[in-house]
Amino acid sequence: MKGPAMSAPEEILNQIPLDQLAADLGTDEATARQAALTAIPLLISGMGDNARDDAGAVSLASALNNHAGSGLTARGTLKLDDVDTADGDKIVGHVLGNRQDTVVRSLGGGLGLDNPTTQRLLKILAPIVMAYLAKKVLGGEGGGMLGGPQQAGGGTLAAILEQLLGGGRQTQPQTRDEAGGGLLGGLLKSLGLG
Which of 91, 105, 162, 169 is the most exposed place for a label (fewest CB within 10 A)? Predict the structure, then answer.
């Protein structure tokens, strides 16, 4: 008998070596797991928010195309040394824009992480999330949800990203439980993403 399907954040988390992430962040594995399960949906939601208009959708589709087959999802086991954090910094800057400082403070404060550690977490996760979404949206292994970047209308990518989050930004019980009573929901709402 097959268990329930994993959410996109859980699938992404399963690709990340938590021991390496915890060591990189200078924390324990439980905190690293909680931090990742909170930050991943936040990044996906931010990408979805950017994809609500045609220009943002085209930009996101282009970024997804650039990350398709990046190797971050091709191998069975990811090594954090393979993650380009400079690329991650660019992705985070684009996705969160002028809200980046607010997100870092709120996310880090809710998880008990300082700002530099929280920024590092986002820079590590962003390329992994982008590679995962590229594989899911554009194809690879069984095809994707979207035929290619040329089909990326303003609402299409945003809808796909919301679907990957479980149909809506506020319906992530596993993240809410892991993050201590709705940290993610509060962050998204405070940023106008919820």
Answer: 105
Separation of CA 42 from chain center: 6
User: What is the distance between the alpha carbons of residues 104 and 123, in angstroms, rounded to a whole number?
Assistant: 11
Q: Pick from 117, 112, 111, 62: which is nearest to 91 by CA?
A: 62
CA–CA separation, 70 and 119 (whole Å): 22
Whole-number Å distance between alpha carbons of 109 and 88: 21
pLDDT tens, residue by residue, 86-111: 999 999 999 998 989 999 999 899 88
Closest CA to 144 of 160, 159, 158: 160
* Number of C-beta neighbours around residue 43 at 10 A: 25
CB proximity list for 41: less than 8 A, separation 6 or greater: 8, 9, 165, 169, 172, 175, 184
In this structure, is the dihedral angle defined by the CA atoms of residues 118, 121, 123 and 126, taken in order, positive or negative? Answer: negative
- Could you tell me the two tokens for 137? 């949206």
**124: part of which helix (H) or strand (E)?**
helix 115-138
**Contact by Cβ (8 Å): 125, 46:** no
Token pair for 10: 């859980």
Name residue, tokens 């990189």: 24
Residue 150 pLDDT > 50: no
Tokens of 5: 């399907």
